[in-house]
């Protein structure tokens, strides 16, 4: 086994002592604590300003940890974990009674994910050696605000937090969440994994929530990531097609920053950034760019609507919520 760096060791010790840390993952940075320590988990909710009944994702070092949290692992979940872990996939499973109650927000299910970021994996293994079986971590932003994709973003929100710097997050938007606690798997939050790939890997048709059959856990929470308004910058964000942007921009009464896949003549917009035409690249830049445009002095951010098609579902979802 590779030697663990001093910073990872310190962070693992902080988790084992019940402290919070900033955790780099391949999706976004997390605000992390020992999932089995109710006081540490309460500190996450307090720091984020998140309602205590909104459950957290528990991060594990590998799939062998799953039976410590889940009472039952259906075949579909097993196949999904085998296909996508470590990686940007969270599975919801029925929860073992009495385990990680606070992290689960008191719900009968538990969200589990094994991240692929090497520093996150090193930390999870090291923490496990110190008795931490799982690490609860929501995105490390204040409730409702833009998710962090660099260590600097985390420090802006939580200046005194110990943050592991793992560089800019590769994926850039949060994990895909599949609920495997129901009779058939349901996609609760789109990310960068395609619905068709999830269905193929799980051996079942993964459906969108609106098409899902009734769940045995229907008291399942309104997921914060699924609230209509989330990921919001301070400036008003509008999603518009290219034609509407070109038509309305010359008459705009406020300073407008534009993120679009076409170029604009100089001086028409207060600020203009070219949007990548590839969804993965777009996701990678999305949250950092919203922050940058938000602090540019622009009063509104106009974003060109992503193209149709499932490859853009994750990016479209985040932009629609940011615009709400
Ligand atoms: O990529 C990610 O998933 C990041 C990184 C840090 O791993 N984490 C993240 O956590 O996005 P958070 O707390 O911002 O979003 C967790 C989502 C929420 O929408 C929450 O409601 C949902 O997971 N969730 C957690 N437990 C759940 C459960 N038992 N049933 C349904 N949804 C659940
Ligand atoms: Mg979040």
Major sheet description:
9 strands, mixed
Counting DSSP H or I runs of 4 or more residues, the number of helices is: 9
Radius of gyration, CA atoms, in whole angstroms: 20 Å
Report helical residue fraction: 25-40%
By CATH's scheme, which homologous superfamily of the largest domain applies?
DHBP synthase
Which topology of the largest domain does CATH recognise? Answer: DHBP synthase
Second rung of CATH, namely the architecture of the largest domain: Alpha-Beta Complex
Strand content: 15-25%
Strand order of the largest sheet: 7-1-2-6-3-5-4-8-9
Average residue pLDDT: 93
> Which class best fits the helix and strand makeup?
alpha/beta
What's the structural domain tally? Answer: 2
Count the beta strands.
13
Terminal-residue CA separation: 47 Å
| Heterogens | threonylcarbamoyladenylate, magnesium ion
Outline, from the CA principal axes? globular
Order of helices and strands: HEEHEHEEHEHEEEHEHEEHEH
- Low-pLDDT runs of 5+ residues are 213-222
Report the top-level CATH class of the largest domain: Alpha Beta
Structure description:
With 324 residues, the protein is an alpha/beta fold. It folds into 2 domains: 6-211, DHBP synthase (Alpha-Beta Complex); 236-323, 3-Layer(aba) Sandwich (Rossmann fold). The chain is built from 9 helices and 13 strands. The strands form 2 sheets. The chain has a 9-stranded mixed sheet with strand order 7-1-2-6-3-5-4-8-9, sandwiched between helices. It has a 4-stranded parallel sheet with strand order 10-13-11-12. A hairpin with a 6-residue loop joins β1 (21-23) and β2. α1 (6-16) packs across α4. The structure holds threonylcarbamoyladenylate and magnesium ion. Magnesium ion (MG) is lined by residues 138-139, 147, 225. Magnesium ion binds next to loops.
């Amino acid at each position: 086994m590779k030697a663990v760096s001093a910073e990872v060791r310190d962070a693992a010790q902080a988790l084992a002592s019940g402290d919070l840390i900033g955790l780099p993952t391949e999706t976004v940075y997390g605000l992390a604590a020992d999932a089995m320590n109710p006081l540490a988990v309460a500190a996450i909710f307090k720091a984020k300003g998140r309602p205590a009944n909104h459950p957290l994702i528990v991060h594990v070092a590998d799939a062998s940890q799953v039976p410590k949290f889940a009472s039952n692992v259906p075949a579909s979940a097993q196949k999904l974990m085998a296909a996508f872990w470590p990686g940007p996939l969270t599975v919801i499973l029925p929860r073992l009674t009495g385990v990680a109650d606070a992290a689960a927000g008191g719900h009968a299910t538990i969200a589990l994910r094994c991240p692929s970021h090497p520093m996150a994996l090193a930390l999870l293994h090291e923490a496990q050696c110190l008795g931490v079986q799982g690490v609860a971590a929501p995105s490390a932003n204040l409730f409702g605000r833009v998710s962090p994709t660099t260590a600097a973003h985390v420090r802006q929100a939580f200046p005194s937090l110990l943050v592991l710097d793992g560089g800019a997050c590769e994926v850039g938007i949060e994990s895909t969440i599949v609920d495997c606690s129901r009779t058939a798997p349901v996609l609760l939050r789109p990310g960068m994994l395609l619905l068709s790939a999830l269905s193929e890997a799980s051996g079942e048709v993964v459906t969108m929530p609106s098409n899902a059959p009734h769940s045995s856990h229907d008291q399942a929470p309104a997921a914060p990531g699924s609230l209509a308004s989330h990921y919001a910058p301070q400036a008003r964000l509008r999603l518009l097609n290219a034609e509407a942007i070109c038509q309305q921009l010359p008459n705009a009464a406020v300073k407008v920053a534009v993120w679009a896949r076409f170029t604009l003549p100089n001086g028409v917009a207060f600020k203009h950034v070219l949007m990548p035409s590839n969804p993965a690249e777009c996701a990678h830049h999305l949250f950092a760019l919203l922050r940058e445009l938000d602090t540019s002095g622009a009063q509104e951010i106009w974003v060109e609507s992503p193209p149709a098609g499932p490859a853009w579902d994750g990016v479209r979802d985040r932009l629609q919520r940011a615009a709400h």
